[in-house]
Amino acid sequence: MSGFVALVARDLRLVWRRPGDVAVVLAFFVVATTLFPLGIGPEANVLARIAAGVLWCAALFAALLSLDRLFAADFEDGTLDLLLLAPWPLELAALAKCCAHWIVTGLPLAVLAPLLGVAFGLEPAVLLALSATLLVGTPTLSLIGGLAAALTLGARKSGALLALLALPLCVPTLIFGAGAVEALATGGDFRAHIAVLAALALVALATTPWAIAAALRQAGE
Amino acid sequence: MSGFVALVARDLRLVWRRPGDVAVVLAFFVVATTLFPLGIGPEANVLARIAAGVLWCAALFAALLSLDRLFAADFEDGTLDLLLLAPWPLELAALAKCCAHWIVTGLPLAVLAPLLGVAFGLEPAVLLALSATLLVGTPTLSLIGGLAAALTLGARKSGALLALLALPLCVPTLIFGAGAVEALATGGDFRAHIAVLAALALVALATTPWAIAAALRQAGE
Amino acid sequence: MADLHFLANPARFRRFSQRVVPSLSVATALMLAVGLYLALLQSPPDYQQGDTVRIMFVHVPSAWLAMAGYALLAGLGASLLIWRHPLAALMARAAAPVGAGFCAVCLLTGSLWGRPMWGAYWVWDARLTSMLLLFFLYLGHIALSRAYDEPDRGDRAAAILALIGVINLPIIKFSVDWWNTLHQPASVARLGGPSIHPSILVPLLWMAATLFLLFVLLVLLRTDTEIDRRRLENAEQQA
Amino acid sequence: MATPLLEVADLACRRGGRRVFERLSFSLGPGELLALTGRNGSGKTTLLRALALLIRPDTGSIHWQGTDVAAEPDAWRGRLAWLGHLEGLKADLSVAENLLAAERLRGAPPAGDRLDSALVAFDLSVLARRAMRTLSAGQRRRTALARVVLTQAPLWLLDEPLNALDAPAQAAFRGALASHLASGGLAIAATHADLGVAGARTLELGEPQKASA
Amino acid sequence: MATPLLEVADLACRRGGRRVFERLSFSLGPGELLALTGRNGSGKTTLLRALALLIRPDTGSIHWQGTDVAAEPDAWRGRLAWLGHLEGLKADLSVAENLLAAERLRGAPPAGDRLDSALVAFDLSVLARRAMRTLSAGQRRRTALARVVLTQAPLWLLDEPLNALDAPAQAAFRGALASHLASGGLAIAATHADLGVAGARTLELGEPQKASA
Amino acid sequence: MSTHAVYVMSAYLVALVILGGLLISSLAARQRVRRELSARGLERKR
Ligand code: HEM
Ligand SMILES: Nc1ncnc2c1ncn2[C@@H]1O[C@H](COP(=O)(O)OP(=O)(O)OP(=O)(O)O)[C@@H](O)[C@H]1O
Ligand SMILES: Nc1ncnc2c1ncn2[C@@H]1O[C@H](COP(=O)(O)OP(=O)(O)OP(=O)(O)O)[C@@H](O)[C@H]1O
Ligand SMILES: [Mg+2]
Ligand SMILES: [Mg+2]
C-alpha cells in the first residue's frame, strides 16, 4: 500500500515539475472543442444539439493523447524494470499509474467542460450534468487507456495503435456519458444513465489492473 | 539532393518494414469518425449537416497522431545528431521527412474519406469534393505538424503539446477545407475555396522547412 | 530439444489437419455449389423484400461466424495465457483475419441490402453499429499482434486484448442497443418474427453450414502456414 | 566456500528464438561476488534478467536458501538490487528525489541519513538538487549506483557497473561493493573490465555448448 | 609535430548557465589522436558537441586548415565522423541497412564492398541481417563504430568508444583507429580507459579554472 | 431476377471477393512459406 501511495505521489510530482503538461492537455481539449464550430459552421441550434457529443468526444481524445506516455517513459528509461522488481503486486502499481493519470486529466477535464459548454449555449443544469458524467466516466477512460498504453509498450507508432485499441472499448462510456447529458436536456432518465456509467467504471476497475499487469510483465521480457 | 531522396527512401522503408503502421493511422481515422455519431446520436439530417466538418477534424487528428514520432524517434536514438551533421542543408532533410509523412498519411486519408462520407449520407459529388480538398489540404497539415513535432522535441508529453501547437496553425486549412465541401453542397464558390487551400499549402511549403530546421538545430543543443 | 517441445502440439495438429483438409475442401466446394443453387435459383423471392432476401443467405451466416470468431479468439487467448499452449498463439494469428473477413462480408452485404430496403447504405442502427465496433476490435487485434518484432510478444498482447474485448462485447452490444432506441428512425424495416418460411430457412441453414466449413478450412490452412512460418523464422534466427 | 544461499541449476534461456545459453549452474554464498564475463552477445544481460525473473527461462531453477524463488516472487524481488544498462532515473526529478522515490517504490521507509551517506560515497552531494537531465553520463551512472547501495538488498545484480565512471568513481564503487560483500551480501556483475575485487569468482559465458560453471 | 590541421583557440562553453570549461586551446595535425580525459562532468561530451557545432560555444574559434569552420558548416560536417553516447541506429532496420542508410544520409554513394570489410572488421558479418533491436549492448556499439569507419571522414569525434565492448572488439577498434591515423586521419576521443594507441596526446579537462592544454 | 438484382449480385460478388481473396491469399502464403522452407533444406516434418 505504501508503494501505491509512493507511486501516485511520484507521478504527481513529475507532473508538478512540469505543470505545462496538464495545461497542454486541457488546452488541447479547449482547442479541439472550438475546432468543431469552425469546421461545422455557427448555427446555434445545430451546435447546442451536438454539444454534449462533441465535448465528450474531445474529452476522450484529450485523455488518449495524454496516455501514450503513461508507461512509455518508464519503459524507455528503465524505471519499468524497477517497478517489476518492486516487492508488491504489479496490479497495484498499474492502478496507481491510472489513478495519477485520472487526477491530472480526468478531474480537470470534468471541471473545465462546463465552461466550454457555455460557448455551445447549454443550460446551467445541463452544464452541471455534463460535469457529473465526466467525473463518473473519465476513470473508465483512464483505466482502458492505461491498458492500451501497456499493450502497445515497445510496439512502434504506438500513438495511433493505442487509439485504435482503446476507442472501441471506450464506446459504451461515451454513449452513456453523452447520452446522460442528452437525457437530461430532453427529459429522459438521467439517473439510469449515470448508474450505468458507474457500473462501467466498476467493471473496468475490476478487470483492467490485472490485464495491465500482465501486459507490463510481458513488456519487461 | 541525393540525401533528400535517401531520407525519403529510408523513411518509406521504415514504414514498409511495418506496413501495419499506415493501416493503424487509417483505422484510427475510421474509428474516430464513427465516434461522432455515437456521441451525437444517429439522426441522419444532423449527421449529413456536420459530416464535412467531422471528417476534416478526424483527418486532422489522424495526421497529428501519426506525427508525434516524426522526429522523436530520430532524436531519441541519436539519428538526429547524424542528420544535423550531414553535409547538406537541414531544410531539405526537414522537407524530406514531411514529404514521406504525407505519402503515408495524407494521401491514404484523401482516398479513404469518401468511403466514410457514405456512412454520413453524403452525395457522390460531395464525396469527390471532400477527397479533392483533402488532397490539397493535407500537405499543409504534414508541414505544420512537422514544425510542431520539431518544436516539441525533447519536451515531455509531446503528444498533447504538439497537438496544441499545430491545431491553431491548421485552423485556416480546416476552415477552407470543410468550407469548400460545404460550399459545393450549398451552391457556394467551391473553386475559390480550393484556391485558398492551395495558396495555404504554398505558404507552408515556403516557410516551414526553415522553421523546422531551426527547431531541429535548437533541439540538438 | 526446445524445437521438439515447440513442435509437440503443432506436429499433432499438423497430422490432424493433413487428414482433414482434403476432404474438408471437397465437402465445402460441393456444399457451396448446392448452396448457391438453393440461394440464388431455387428459393422463391420474398413477398415483401423481393429478390433482395437472397442477400440474407450470406449476410446472416457471416454475422454469426464473425461473432463466433471473436469468441474463438478469446478462448485461444485464454489458453495461451493460462496454459501457454503454443498452438493457441498460432491459431489466433490465423483466425483473426478470417473473422475480420467474415465481419467485413456481413457489413458490406448488409450495406448493399440497406440501400434497396432503407434507401441508404448505412444508418446508425444498433445492430450495424455494434457489428462495426466488432470489426474495429478485430482490427485492433490484428494490428497489435503484428506490431512487435518478437512475434511471441505480439501474440500475448493480442491475447490479453481478446480477453478484455470479449468481456466488453456484450457491454458494447447492450449499450449500443440502448443508445439507438433513443432515436430509432422509424424507417428501419426488419424481417423476423418467429416464423421464417422453410423455403428461406433451408437455404439459410445450408449456407450457414457451408460458410462454417469454409471458416474452419481457412483457419486450418492458415494455422498450418503459421507453423511453417514460425519454423522459418526460427531457422533464420539460428543462422 | 560458505554455505550457498543462491543456487542456480541447469538454466537455459532463449532470446528471439535463439538459444543464448543452456545447462548453466552455479551457486553463491554470503560475501561472494560472481563476475559474468564473455563476448558481446554471450548472454550476460540475459542471465541477469532471468535471475531477476524479468524474463522466463526455458528450463532450470533458481533457489534461495533452498526454496524456489518463482514460488514467492515478491519476496525474491525484495531481496534484489538492480542496475541495468538503462538507469531508471527520471530526467525531471533531482538526484535526491530520484533516490527517495526509488526507495519508496520498494516499499521501504524514506532513507533518512542513509541517503546522505550514499550521496557522499559517490560524490553526489553537490549535485543532489540538480535535475537528472542536466547531468553527464558518469554522474547519472553514479546516481544509479547510489540507488543500489540504498536498497540494502542482500543480492546485487549489476550490468556493467563501471560503464562511464571515472577513476575516483570506480574506486568508490569498489569500496561500496567490498563493504556489501564484507557484511555478507552477494553480488553478480556483468563486466568487460576487471572489477578489482580480490577473490571474485568468474563465470565466462560462451557459445551455448560451452557455457557451464 | 605535423602541421596542425585543426586549431581550437580559447574555447569556452557553458551548460545550464554553468561554465564547463574556458580558455581551452589545442591543435591537432594529421595522424594525431587526442584523448579527452577528466572527471565525470568535466566537459568531455560538451567539448565534442561544440566541435561538431551541435552546441554553440560561448567564446573561441575552431579552424580547419586555417579557415573558421563556422563559416562553412556543411563542408565542416562533411569532414566529421560522430559517435555519441547514443548510437543513432534504428531499432527496426538491420545492421546492414542501418549502415547503408547512414552512408546515404551523408550524401555518399552506397558503400559497396567497403561495407563488407567494415562488417568483417567488427565481427558483424553474421549479424548483418539481424534487426538492431535484437542486439546486445556491445553488438550495437560495434555497429556504431562500423558506421564511423565507413564515413572515411578525416576527423573522428568519439565519446567513450570503448563502452560495452568486449576485449576482441576493443582490439578491433584499436586496429581501425590505428589505420585511420596511419592514413593521416585525426581523432578526438573522450575516454576513461586507456585507448591503447602509442603516441596519443591527452587533454585532461578539470575544474573550469584549470582547463587548458 | 427483378428490380434489385444489382444489389443481390454485388452482395454475392463482394462476399466472393473477400472470402475468395482470403482463400487465395491463404493458399499463396502457404505455398510461399513452404517454398522458402524447402529452399533452406528444411523439409516439412510430417
Ligand atoms: C451494414 C448493415 C448491416 C449489418 C452490420 C447487419 C448486421 C447483422 C447482424 C450482426 C446480424 C446477426 C444477428 C443475430 O443473429 O444475432 C444480422 C442478422 C440479420 N440481418 Fe442484418 N445487418 C445489416 C443490414 C441488414 C439489412 C439492410 C437487412 C434487411 C433489411 C438485414 C436483415 C437481417 C436479417 C433478416 C437478419 C437475421 C435476423 C435474425 O435471425 O435475427 N440486415 N444482421
Ligand atoms: N530482444 C532480443 N531479441 C532477440 N535477441 C536478443 C534480444 N536481446 C538480446 N538478444 C540476443 O541474445 C544474445 C545475448 O544478448 P545479451 O544482451 O544477453 O548479451 P550480453 O552478454 O549482455 O552482451 P553485451 O556484452 O554486448 O552487453 C545476443 O546474441 C543478442 O543478439
Ligand atoms: N543539458 C545540460 N544542462 C545543464 N548542464 C549540463 C547539461 N549537460 C551536461 N551538463 C553539465 O555540464 C557538465 C559537463 O558535462 P559533460 O556531459 O560534458 O561531462 P563529461 O565530461 O562528458 O562527463 P562524463 O564522463 O560523465 O560523460 C557537467 O557538470 C554536467 O552536469
Ligand atoms: Mg549486456
Ligand atoms: Mg560524457
Name a few traits of the molecule:
heterohexamer, C: 239 residues, mainly alpha, 0% strand, globular, D: 213 residues, alpha/beta, Rossmann fold, five-stranded parallel sheet, four-stranded antiparallel sheet, 6 helices, binds protoporphyrin IX containing FE, binds magnesium ion
General description of the model:
The complex is a heterohexamer, with two copies of chain A (221 residues), one copy of chain C (239 residues), two copies of chain D (213 residues) and one copy of chain F (46 residues). Chain A has helices at residues 2-17, 19-40, 44-65, 72-76, 79-84, 90-119, 124-151, 158-186, 190-220. Chain A is mainly alpha-helical. The mean pLDDT of chain A is 87. Chain C is mainly alpha-helical. Chain C has a domain at 56-187 and 198-225. In chain C, α1 runs antiparallel to α6 and α4 packs antiparallel against α5 (151-182). The longest helix of chain C has 41 residues, at 2-42. Chain D is of the alpha/beta class and 213 residues long. Chain D has a domain at 1-79 and 156-164 and 186-213: P-loop containing nucleotide triphosphate hydrolases (Rossmann fold), CATH 3.40.50.300. Chain D is built from six helices and nine strands, in the order βββαββαβαααβαββ. In chain D, α6 (167-182) links the parallel β7 (155-159) and β8. In chain D, α3 runs parallel beside α5 and α4 (113-121) packs across α5 (137-151). Chain D is globular and about 45 Å long. The mean pLDDT of chain F is 84. Chain F has one domain (1-46). By secondary structure, chain F is mainly α. The chains are: A mainly alpha (221), C mainly alpha (239), D alpha/beta (213), F mainly alpha (46). Chains A and B meet through α2, α3 and α8 of A and α2, α3 and α8 of B. One magnesium ion binds at residues 44-45, 159, 190 of chain D. One adenosine-5'-triphosphate sits between chains E (15-16, 20, 38, 40-46, 190) and D (134-139, 164, 166).
